[in-house]
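Human: My hope is that you can spare some time for a protein that puzzles me. I am handing you a single protein, as its sequence and its fold in token form. Could you go through the record with me and say what the backbone is doing? Take your time, and here it is.
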Amino acid sequence: MVSKAKIDKAGLALAGRHNVPNDISEFENIFDEYRKSHLQPLSEMTLELQQWLSQYGTKYYIAQRLKRKPQILRKLNRFSVRLTQLQEIGGWRSIVELNSDVERLINFLEDKVAKQGQLKLIKATDYREKGRDDSGYRAVHLILEKSGARLELQVRSRIQHYWAESIERTSVIYGHYLKELEGDPTVVAYFKCLSDLFYEIESGRDPDTPQKLRIARLRDSAESLIQQSDTKMVFNSYVNEGIIKTLIEKEKHIGGPGLNNWIFVFDWNQGAFVSWDVVARDPDIAIKKYVEHERSFPAEDGFEVVLVGSSEVATVRETHSHYFGIKSDESILESLDESIIGFSHRMDIDVGARQILACMHRKHYWGKKTVEPDTLKNHYCQKVLTFESSLETLIEKGLVHRTNAITGIALDIKRKKDIEVYL
């Protein structure tokens, strides 16, 4: 047991707000132990939440996570708070289809919490109508308490999540934490305006022409600023959907149902995973591995180390989608129309299919200029682990067609606009 004063002192020291001795290992250990103390109640509550949600009756995604160390330290500085005051070191991200489903899920969970005694609802904050701060972030946050640890449940609609993942991805390309209001105000204003328009659409209202013109102007200005930024991180890699299939296969061999902890290491310089693996359910072992990975892959070098808990690893594809389908910065920001189309179309093909489209588009395989599938697979798309199924999806959707030569395939020139939206 360590006193709150010592925990707060460790947080201040690591955040650079306190005189730090040459040897800060004690502060590091206190910080790691305090963060670890959230994992056991978090994992227990995840299983209980999943049991409740099995009775919910509507599609949802949920995954738990421990907040990353760099995020915690930035938050201590940004809000001038103490480590023991943070209430979201452990938490969950849950995604439902519509804004009305957010309301329904919150009511459902509040009712469940009220009927049991071990979990308390401390606070509910609704950011949906006005958006948080000046960034435009929208969601509902519930602060729950279990075994003395305060945990945060974020509930978002699919559109709210789409916005949040877009700003995360752009922050990496730009080199500034836009949700924390870093970077040029014009770029922040673009996302705030985009969030406001998304809210109008979710509320059943069509944005008027002046609003659409404003978002178009902001997009052009913001994209130019990002392109000119000295700190931007440019990458052209794609993360293949086959990774999820690999994780699912691993999950099958772990042994029995239940919550599993996974550590993902993502390299934002390359837009690719460095490693992904399951770690023990035991909090002591899981945190030890987590800390080892954080020290081996430092955030200042462009790495992101994430500890995610889920009883179904495939949900990571939805809850952390900004790690998948990363594209180059040739067209960083979307127009409003592109975003709306993205809600209904962007995610209905996997990343492997987008890779195939990108390759065929780049090599101008349109109309009469064809390529044999084997050539495409073995020479140009060797990293597409889902090649056969992804190609079949593209053919079924009419984006790629077989030519009269039977063996050749090409992009359908009549679907050029649709293909570019997917890309």
Notes: Residues 209-228 form the longest helix (20 residues). Residues 242-323 form one domain.
